[in-house]
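Entry 14. Structure prediction run on the chain below.
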Amino acid sequence: MYDGFYNLNKKPFQLSADTEFFFNSAVHRRALAYMRYGLTQGEGFVVVTGKPGTGKTMLVKELVKSLDNDNIAIGIMVSSQVGADDLLKIISATFGLPYDGEDKSTLLTRIQRFFIQQARDGKRVLMIVDEAQNLPKDSLEELRMLTNFELSGKALFQIFLIGQPELGETLFLPELEQLRQRIVATYQLKPLSEEETKSYILFRLEKAGWNKTPEFEDDIFAVICSYTQGIPRRINTLCDRVLLFGYLEELAVIGLAAVNKVIAEIEEESSVVTDEFHDLVSASTSPTINADGTLIERIQALEKVVSSLQNTLNKERTLLRKAILIQLDLDNVYDNAPGQE
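Output returned:
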């Protein structure tokens, strides 16, 4: 929508992890250096943690893109609450090995044979576990056991654990001492600074074909950094809304007033949803009403949530209608311009 209005080739602040938009900030550059150092060790664990939205998945994609797939077999697993036995099945599926209906000993034997065959073919095996904070302790221990597989004294399997800060807390549990001893590199992603936030925003705009339209006043970047706490995903979400606002208001210059207006709208939307769900929780947990009363309260709370969502939908429809009308006006101007048939 706004990309056409501002003559952009694509949306600059999409939430998907597209490596074309990888911003090599100081923290991300350092994280990649640690990951590549870990790869040179060829064994054990490499651990990268960071708050949600700090760019962990983007880092993984950037690393994988740079690797020589002729020399390394890579498996990427997005973790959930997976028990040890199911973990072996997921690893098997990731590397294309049969797993359905197999017992644990069969799965382990098949995985070990796969590792050995890859080594004989001159390949290393790397498993990257994203959202690794979701793994239970027994699954982490199972991963550690897999790093015991060797051939001629050389490790056959290396693991990258990528997750939120809770992963670091889990790894420091006393029962995971042996796993900690096998960590060869670790890094915690930090948010972007104010200067990096500005560079990040301009970088993504330029990647999307930005030609200084709209212009951005310098004082907005400090506000954006402060509100988003320098977290890339939050920056993307806010800047996407700011550009949409600029399009709807036909702004050639994005200033502090526009950014503050969008922030206020986001806060208002968040407050409405939060209040409604707090009401729902309060109604559903109230100890002072009987069973029938609890049901009635829950229904009433749910009706409030539905009403709130309907109001939000109506607002979005109004914005969409306005956007369509603006686009139609622009099309009419173009069609009636001199030289147009």
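The chain has 13 helices and nine strands.
Filed with the rest of this week's runs.
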